C-alpha cells in the first residue's frame, strides 16, 4: 500500500520527470529548424544526433556516483547542469556548439531519467513499482508535450528556436526547489556505500559464491546484465531514428509546417498514456515480460507504418506505435532497476544507457548513410527487426512482478522498515 511518504516522493519525482522530459525533448523537436538556420542536411542532423549520444559517458559517471553519494544530490546536479546546457544552446553561434552543449544536456538528462525510476523502485511496494515507474513517464511525456506546444513560436523567425531553450532558466529554478524537498532513498540509506568501491562497480566472484543464475560480479547476475544490454541495443537501434528523425520526415517528406507537426504529434503520441496505464497494470499484476513483448511488437509495426505511408495510415501507424509501444515504459522501466542490487543499481543502469546509446548511434548512422531524398521506409522496416527480436529475448529474464528487491538481489540486506 502506498503511504503518505510514498505519495510525496512520487509527486516530487513527477515534477523532476517533467523537467527532464522538457529538457530532453528540446533537441529532437528543434534540430530540423536549427539545421535550417545554421546549416545542415539530413546527413548532418543524423550525425549530430549520433555525436550527442556520446553524452552517455556523463550518464554513466553520474549514475555510478549516485551509488556512492546518493540519489538525491546527483539528481539535483544533473538537472541543474542540463538546464545550464540548454541556456548555452540558446546562445550557440553554430551547429557545432549546439551539438556540444546538447551532448552535455542529453547526457545529464539521461542520468536523471534512470535515477528517477531507481528512486521509485527503492521506495514503492513490490506490487506498485511498475505503476510508479509508468506514472513517471506521463509527466516526462508532458514535458515533451510542452516543447510541442511551444513549437509554433519557431514561426516567428529563422532563429526563433532559441526561445525554447531560454526556458532552461525556468527548469533550473524548478529543479532546485523540488529537490530541496526530496528525501534520500531508504534502501540506499540502509546499505553501506563504501561497499561499492570496486572499479566500474563490479568485482569478481569468489569460489565460495553460488552460480545459480550464471556468473555473478558483486551481486550482479551477468546473464541478466547481458540480456538487458542486448535488449537496449536492439530497441534503440530502431527507436532513436524513428524518434529523432520524425520531425525531419514530417517536415521534408510530408511537407508539414511546425504547427501541423505539433498537431500530429500531440494527436497521435498523446495516446501513449493508455499503453502506459495498461502496461503498468499488466506488469504489476501479471507479467513484466508479457507487457514488454506486446509493446515491442506494437512499437515496431506502428512506426514502420508511420514512415512508410502518408495520409490516414501514417496517423494510424503513429497512434499504434505510441499506444501499444507505451506498454514498454512501465514493464522494461521496472526491470532495469529491479534486476540489480542497490549499490550497483546506478552504475548498472548507466551501463544500460551506454548499450542504448550504442544502438542509437548505430541506428542513426544507418539512417544517415542509407536514407536519401526523404525515403525512410526501407531503412525503418529493416531496423524494426530490433524490437521484434527483443519481444522474444525478454523471456530469458526472470519474472519480477510482485517480488521484493531483496529476493531478486540476495546480496542486498533487508532495509530497516522504520
- State the separation between the terminal residues, measured CA to CA: 15 Å
- What is the helix content? over 70%
Biggest sheet record: 2 strands, antiparallel
Shape descriptor reads globular
Query: So what's the CATH class?
Result: Mainly Alpha
Strand percentage lies at under 5%
CATH superfamily, by name, is MFS general substrate transporter like domains
Q: Estimate the mean pLDDT confidence.
A: 87
Radius of gyration (CA) equals: 20 Å
Question: What would the keywords be for this entry?
Answer:
418 residues; disordered C terminus; mainly alpha; Growth Hormone, Chain: A; two-stranded antiparallel sheet
Summarize this structure briefly:
With 418 residues, the chain is mostly helical.
Describe this structure in words.
- This protein has a single domain, classed as MFS general substrate transporter like domains (Growth Hormone, Chain: A).
- The C terminus is likely disordered.
- It is built from 20 helices and two strands.
- A two-stranded antiparallel sheet has the order 1-2.
- 56% of the residues are buried.
- The chain has 418 residues and is mainly alpha-helical.
- Helices cover 72% and strands 1% of the residues.
Amino acid at each position: 500500500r502506498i503511504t503518505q511518504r510514498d505519495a510525496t516522493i512520487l509527486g516530487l519525482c513527477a515534477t523532476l520527470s517533467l523537467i527532464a522530459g522538457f529538457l530532453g525533448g528540446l533537441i529532437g523537436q528543434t534540430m530540423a529548424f536549427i539545421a535550417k538556420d545554421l546549416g545542415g542536411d539530413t546527413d548532418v542532423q543524423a550525425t549530430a544526433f549520433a555525436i550527442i549520444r556520446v553524452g552517455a559517458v556523463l550518464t554513466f559517471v553520474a549514475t555510478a556516483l549516485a551509488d556512492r553519494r546518493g540519489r538525491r544530490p546527483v539528481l539535483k546536479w544533473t538537472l541543474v547542469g542540463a538546464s545550464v546546457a540548454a541556456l548555452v544552446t540558446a546562445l550557440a553561434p553554430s551547429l557545432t556548439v549546439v551539438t556540444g552543449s546538447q551532448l552535455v544536456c542529453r547526457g545529464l538528462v539521461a542520468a536523471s531519467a534512470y535515477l528517477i525510476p531507481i528512486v521509485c523502485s527503492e521506495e514503492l511496494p513490490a506490487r506498485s513499482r511498475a505503476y510508479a515507474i509508468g506514472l513517471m513517464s506521463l509527466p516526462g511525456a508532458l514535458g515533451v508535450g510542452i516543447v510541442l506546444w511551444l513549437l509554433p513560436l519557431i514561426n516567428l523567425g529563422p532563429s526563433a528556436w532559441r526561445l525554447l531553450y531560454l526556458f532552461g532558466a525556468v527548469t533550473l529554478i524548478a529543479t532546485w526547489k523540488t529537490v530541496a524537498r526530496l528525501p534520500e532513498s531508504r534502501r540506499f540509506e540502509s546499505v553501506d556505500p563504501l561497499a561499492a568501491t570496486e572499479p566500474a562497480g563490479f568485482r569478481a566472484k569468489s569460489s565460495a559464491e553460488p552460480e545459480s543464475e550464471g556468473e555473478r560480479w558483486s551481486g550482479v547476475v551477468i546473464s541478466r546484465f547481458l540480456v538487458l544490454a542486448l535488449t537496449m541495443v536492439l530497441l534503440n537501434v530502431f527507436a532513436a531514428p524513428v524518434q529523432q528523425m520524425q520531425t525531419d520526415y514530417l517536415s521534408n517528406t510530408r511537407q508539414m509546417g511546425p504547427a501541423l507537426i505539433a498537431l500530429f504529434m500531440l494527436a497521435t503520441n498523446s495516446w501513449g498514456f493508455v499503453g502506459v496505464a495498461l502496461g503498468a497494470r499488466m506488469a504489476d499484476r501479471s507479467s513484466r515480460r508479457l507487457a514488454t513483448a506486446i509493446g515491442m511488437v506494437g512499437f515496431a509495426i506502428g512506426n514502420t507504418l508511420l514512415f512508410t505511408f502518408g495520409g490516414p495510415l501514417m496517423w494510424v501507424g503513429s497512434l499504434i506505435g505510441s499506444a501499444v509501444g507505451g506498454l514498454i515504459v512501465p514493464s522494461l522501466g521496472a526491470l532495469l532497476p529491479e534486476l540489480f542490487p542497490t549499490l550497483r543499481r546506478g552504475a548498472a543502469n548507466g551501463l544500460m544507457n551506454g548499450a542504448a546509446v550504442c544502438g542509437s548511434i548505430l541506428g542513426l548512422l544507418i539512417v544517415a548513410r542509407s536514407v536519401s531524398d526523404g525515403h525512410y521506409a526501407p531503412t525503418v522496416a529493416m531496423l524494426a527487426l530490433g524490437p521484434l527480436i527483443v519481444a522474444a529475448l525478454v523471456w530469458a529474464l526472470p519474472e519480477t512482478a510482485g517480488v521484493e528487491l531483496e529476493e531478486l538481489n540476495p546480496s542486498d540486506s533487508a532495509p530497516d522498515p522504520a
